[in-house]
């Protein structure tokens, strides 16, 4: 019996000691989030696959040391037109807090514009309830884990952003 317990302990120790976690430890101040994190998505636009034109959408989170944040989405021109031109933008600003491995974001203001439909920036007060996402940072990649709500049921989802140079 004693040998079995020692063997179980030894195997358990080996199992847990082989597990690695490359994530950055989270402190109570959220220092690991400070800075800018971006992702780029190529978006199709058109009535059917034959009509699709593609444009880039760049989404960027900025977390500042005063616990303010911004989340900006810039839309760039179509690849067959002027892909370097920003043709629209939307920015949420507000505050954030970190609790363990979760970040809680409170959007307070949105400013947006669109080259064709709304060329003058419009700002609206949001002041919505804070929403939370569990997060992990590995190799300069921030991954947010959250629940999305499609029409039929909640779905666990995740999205990743790459740390930008200051």
Main sheet specs: 8 strands, antiparallel, barrel
CATH class: Mainly Beta
Percent of residues in β-strands: over 45%
> What is the quaternary state of this protein?
single chain
Q: Architecture, CATH level 2?
A: Beta Barrel
* Total count of helical runs of at least 4 residues: 1
Helix amount: 10-25%
Which structural class do the helices and strands define?
Answer: mainly beta
Q: Give the overall silhouette.
A: globular
The residue-averaged pLDDT reads: 80
Q: How large is the radius of gyration?
A: 22 Å
- Give the distance, in angstroms, between the N- and C-terminal Cα atoms: 59 Å
User: How many domains?
Assistant: 1
Strand order of the largest sheet: 1-2-3-4-5-7-8-9
Annotation, overall tally of beta strands: 9
Which blocks of ≥5 consecutive residues have pLDDT under 50? 1-26
If you consult CATH, what is the topology? Lipocalin
- Summarize the helix and strand pattern as letters: HEEEEEEEEE
Organism: Maribacter luteus
Protein name: Lipocalin-like domain-containing protein
